[in-house]
Design a protein that fits this description.
CATH class of the largest domain: Mainly Beta
Shape: elongated
Number of domains: 2
Strand content: 25-35%
Largest sheet: 6 strands, antiparallel, barrel
CATH superfamily of the largest domain: Rod shape-determining protein MreC, domain 1
Number of helices: 2
């Protein structure tokens, strides 16, 4: 089978040959019959058609090569652009990662306890539990019940530990509990998980002053979390006419959908967290 290029080349050669033959015949007629009006009238339309065909094929041929070269250049440009975008995204990710790690390092300096940085490698998709998996375990000194934090606030508590990995129960889980207090009035209560983005501040006495916008921090009385660690901000308060407790909603400072690195407290003590804010 001939290729398309070969067929086009042969076609051009045939058309040129036919054109030469016609011109030759035309000259003979012209020499034999004087002006050769009859020959010209017969041959000229056919010669014009041949000339147009040659021009048409030539244009196709030129444009074909032009399009082929353009397509090649386009592919090269696309590959170069793809590499540039990939490189740019890598630089952005490295920059963001460095910023997060620098924030964790600065936060670590404000904690007197021994801590270890861990990377979040998985998240429980179950509707019954809110947990994450981290890449640190028993071999790294992590123990069940250890506090897990980031600069923004409390993340949760280690629930299960294996040799190299651990499962962390987030404070938004229904099974989680953090002894906490309102920073402004020192009103105490227990932070309980409620949903994917909200907690309930339970057992807060109705007589205590709590308003929307108040900051809630850990009290340190549960023996797990250092005193003064940020928990969240009061987002709703219902003070019933009867009963001894008020209903308080708290929005955590931690964005659990964006967790990538955390700090695990390895030797919990009752020292107070020294905020540098």
């Amino acid at each position: 089978m001939f290729s398309k290029k070969m067929v086009m080349i042969i076609g051009v050669i045939v058309l040129i040959a036919v054109n030469i033959i016609i011109l030759s015949v035309s000259n003979r007629y012209y020499q034999s019959y004087g002006p050769g009006r009859i020959a010209i009238s017969l041959i000229a339309p056919f010669q014009e058609a041949v000339s147009r065909s040659i021009r048409f094929v030539k244009d196709i041929w030129v444009h074909y090569f032009f399009l082929v070269e353009t397509a090649k250049e386009n592919d090269i440009y696309k590959k170069s652009l793809s590499h540039a975008v990939e490189k740019d995204n890598l630089h952005k990710e490295l920059k963001l990662s460095n910023n997060r790690l620098r924030s964790l390092l600065n936060f670590q300096k404000s904690i007197t306890n021994k801590v270890i940085a861990a990377e979040v490698i998985g998240k429980d998709s179950s509707p019954w539990f809110n947990t994450i998996m981290i890449d640190k375990g028993k071999d790294d000194g992590v123990k069940k019940g250890a506090a897990v934090v980031i600069p923004e606030g409390i993340v949760g508590q280690v629930a299960e530990v294996s040799t190299n990995y651990s499962k962390v129960l987030l404070i938004i889980d229904h099974n989680s509990a953090v002894d906490a207090l309102v920073q402004r009035t020192r009103a105490r209560g227990i932070i309980k998980g409620s949903s994917s983005d909200r907690c309930l501040f339970k057992y807060v006495l109705r007589k205590k002053s709590v308003v929307v916008g108040d900051t809630v921090v850990s009290s340190g009385l549960d023996g797990v979390f250092l005193k003064g660690l940020p928990v969240g901000q009061v987002s709703g308060v219902i003070r019933p006419n009867s009963g001894i407790f008020q209903e308080v909603s708290v929005t955590p400072y931690v964005d659990f959908e964006k967790l990538e690195e955390v700090l695990v407290v390895l030797n919990p003590r009752k020292d107070k967290f020294q905020s540098k804010q």
